[in-house]
Amino acid sequence: MGWEQAYGQAGELAALDQPVVDDSWDYTGVRAIIAIALTALGEGVEDSAPVPTGHLLWHLGRGPANVRRLAAILLGEELAQATDIDPATVDMDNPVVSTWVWLTRTWPADGPWGGMSRGIARGQTDPAIDILTSWAAQAASTGLRRCS
User: Fold this and answer.
1) pLDDT value of residue 28
2) Distance from the first to the final alpha carbon of the chain
3) Helix or strand run (H / E) with residue 9
4) How confident is the model over 63-103, as pLDDT tens digits?
5) Burial class (CB in 10 A: 0-12, 13-18, 19+), 120
């Protein structure tokens, strides 16, 4: 599964548990985590083959460390384990890289949050990958229940 297909499917899954608002930190982060996981899980698989939602849920349910392991497939181990990546040191034209930079940055406790509204974990400065992976798993779980 390529990035564009994964990002589209991620948006659909994220919308199951988050209001679809492009300027929402919550929705943006959940969609991004799902897209990273779907892209990594789809590596080496025929582009048209979907990643089973149960498989996605299993990986997301194992937490942020597992999502970082998946990201290593796409980005390499060093970048996958990094936090607060300097955008000047990576290819920000690559949507996977720019998404990962966003997911792994720390955020001000009281905002601003990149011009976005935020409802989840206000006051926490942790990267979105650490705060929102369980929310991404919840969206995948909802998707799995709806497909059953």
Assistant:
1) 94
2) 22
3) helix 3-14
4) 999 999 999 999 999 999 999 999 999 999 999 999 999 99
5) middle
Pair 29, 36: CB distance under 8 Å: no
Helix (H, G, I), strand (E, B) or coil at 24: strand
What predicted TM-score, i.e. pTM, was given to this entire model?
A: 0.94
At which residue do the structure tokens 């779980």 appear?
141
Judged on CB neighbours under 10 Å (0-12, 13-18, 19+), 121 is: middle
Report DSSP state, residue 87: G
Residue partners of 43: CB distance under 8 A and separation at least 6: 73, 74
The span from the CA of 148 to the CA of 132, in Å, is 25
**What is the C-alpha to C-alpha distance for residues 146 and 132, in angstroms, rounded to an integer?**
21
Cα separation of 91 and 56, whole Å? 27
Q: Are 133 and 41 in contact (CB under 8 A)?
A: no
| Residues 39, 33, 127: CA angle, nearest 5 degrees | 140
- 3-state class (DSSP) for residue 19: coil
